[in-house]
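I'll show a record.
***
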Amino acid sequence: MESYEKILVLNNEFEAGMLEEVLTDRKIPHGIVTSDDTALGGIMEMEFGWGYVEAPERYKSEIMKIFTEITKP
């Protein structure tokens, strides 16, 4: 199994949902990791963003391109 690395930081759940749908459709291995911390009252989310996408490094440029396309105004 390939090792996963942090690819990009997500700002909110909406971005995460859209990106996850596209990556799943294209069969790109990935994981969405949230910074949710109910014990600390959301302080981690304020510091590190909503969460991040992790995936094998060889998919980094493709994921970045997809993210740019789905988040551009």
